[in-house]
């Protein structure tokens, strides 16, 4: 029986992780090509970054629709629709004649990608709560880690032998493979009897309920500023590491992968640490470690100690702590909202993506060709996440996830 449950857990982790990774794959594979895209389309750095930001904005806004729909009609239909839309938009990106059309199709592509980001979190909540949910979420993120570890390397390899446009043909194929995987390997986890009371009215009521839940919002924004720190790195690291530090696209991909390994490697400790100490305590300690690491990095860079090894090393430490924060905050936020898990997951994803887009935009205003604006943005996110943690988990009388008996 234990073996069967373990096999089932592994199957869901692999399937949900791969489906979740298709959208981020279109981001991470694309990063090494950003400077080349600007040169090919005659576009400025800010215009090329707008194609990245458009993707994030549409992913954030689209989740508000996918979440309630997943509660109303089940988990699989929205995934089918999203993957098909993503594949069609990828064709548009591959054929885009200018940066304006690229931005438009990236926005549409994001609307398809967000299905694979919001629905798997709801499926995790359908299946488990507490430490078991944390374990499944961490395993899902381990599979998901394929994208930031291998996708930049794949992107740099593609651009070395072909045009950046080939990247979008590849992600289109990934979406088609995702459709096959969805059809053959994923069961429906929200049966028809659970959807009876789900509708537009219940979705609106659910959003209103969540927006009044300060504990839920606190946990969401802890994760949001953790994710936003990664987004600040995501949007600016290729320009900083390639243009400022002189890395080749392949060297940049390796540097990017190092931080991804730290993030997803440490995330695998969530289930074990949560069972020993309680998820809330694990997250609180991890946020403190993350904030301390990135603030120290900011002070070093501000003082002129801005060598590439220093930046990569300190971010390796910070992202390790962040790997404990993000899945744990998601599990705790959804734990009390199982009946509207799709809606709660959608609102969480929307608020986190919009926060990330705002952070990217603000950091972009201060770009000066050095690493300082990027590191300052990451450090600011760490300080805000730490402050929110003290307020959210420090409230008296609020039940926190306890260690497993």
From TrEMBL:
Transmembrane segments: 9-27, 47-66, 78-97, 103-124, 136-154, 166-186, 216-235, 247-266, 278-302, 308-334, 346-367, 373-393
Record keywords: Cell inner membrane, Cell membrane, Membrane, Transmembrane, Transmembrane helix, Transport
The Major facilitator superfamily (MFS) profile domain, residue ranges: 9-397
Compartments it resides in: Cell inner membrane; Cell membrane
Pfam families: MFS_1 (PF07690)
Topology within the bilayer: Multi-pass membrane protein
Similarity remark: Belongs to the major facilitator superfamily. Bcr/CmlA family.
Protein name in UniProt: Bcr/CflA family efflux transporter
Source organism of the structure: Kaistia defluvii
